[in-house]
Amino acid sequence: MACHLWHHFSIRKNYWQDGTSGTMCPIVPGTNYTYKFQVKDQIGSYYYFPTTGMHKAAGGIGPINIHSRDLIPVPFDRPADDMDVMVGDWYIKGHKALKNILDGGRFIGRPNGIQINGKSNKVGDSIAQPVNTVESGKTYRCNIGLKTSINFRVQGHPLKLVEIEGSRTVQNVYDSVDVQVGQCMSVLVTANQEPKDYYTVVSSRFTKTPIQSVAIIRYANGKVGSASPTLPPPPPEGSAGIAWSNNQFCSFRWNLTSSTARPNPQGSYHYGRINITRSIKLSNSQSQVDGKLRFAVNGVSHVEPVDGTPVKLLEYFGVKGQLKYNLMKDEPSAAPKITLAPNVVNTTWRNFVEIIFENTEKTIQTWHLDGYSFFAVTIEQGKWSPAKRNNYNLIDAVSRHNIHIYPNSWAAVMLTLDNAEPQQLCGLVKNMPRINKYSGF
């Protein structure tokens, strides 16, 4: 059985199509289900994957590109073509074995490699087919999506960033870009070099043992097999690498002059002037519970209701006794004892909320908020305090759906809770513990 998550989409006016186990029942084997939701004003690069049974690890993942109509201008010339680059880690073990390891409360360990569009290669391999073929003088858009933290670069070609998770960005040019777990972005690549083969390179970030893979971009009528074995170097690792990556994150800015549709139709472009009505601080932790490794947020480790009924259905039909709201508090306690329970937090419709994520772990954590976009206002090392609000980007932070937090660091986001009818909005953070639980492996 499976449900499919439409990653980064704001499922407007139909929260029941979200695709997670908290909002809908899995699709029974041998049956079909048609999702219906509105994608208005969400022009950009996205992807989908199943949220149950570790089917994602079996290759159940794919890109979705939403283009603007011809009547809606975009802030760059239309590219000659789109090149979807789906990057992710892979394991020798199958998805069922990986699921059994996780269900047993253990780590699945480091991945065995990185794949680009389902293939893993190294320099010198006889790569029969290029990942893409380009024509000299034309510009192409690469839509990058992935499930592990990587650095992406194209040999001999700079990258012009134009979009992150549905938001047009200031068009800065980079030699390479860091793409964290679950994130998507679009870069423009112009084929203006000598017509031959070039390597696309992806390498892991902040891992004890770096892993890398390459793919070929081939110029039409170019010399086949002529890619240079000298690859563009990766960014630094360790603390210098975190500083490098965070500086790049800070350079990502929302394009406020773009005339294209924006992903925050009910919010305000002047979000920095809106009064914060609630501040929630979330801290992830891990501990053994009944002999199994459990991950928790503010001391609560999310589990599904006893009979497996999705949380939203229990609420809709008024089933009593299975849910206790607000078990998770807005502030983490000093030494929380982990509680296993459905983790549902009540919120107020259309409130403007600040969420601070604190990561005390040794690995990067990534948080995704289903059905919403938020303003990713800052990421910093150390501890958060109210005085840190002076460091927020309150002008042009990118409206996005994912935020990553480096080890011993924190991140802050701001958002308006405007994506559901009042009686439906009861599960703002119920899916966060589920996503966070797997991000540190």
UniProtKB/TrEMBL annotation:
Keywords: Glycoprotein. Pfam families: Cu-oxidase, Cu-oxidase_2, Cu-oxidase_3. InterPro entries: Cu-oxidase-like_N, Cu-oxidase_2nd, Cu-oxidase_C, Cu-oxidase_fam, Cupredoxin. Residues 6-69, 85-221, 337-420 form the Plastocyanin-like domain. GO terms for molecular function: copper ion binding; oxidoreductase activity. The keyword Glycoprotein applies. The keyword Glycoprotein applies. Belongs to the multicopper oxidase family. This is Oxidase. It comes from Lithospermum erythrorhizon.
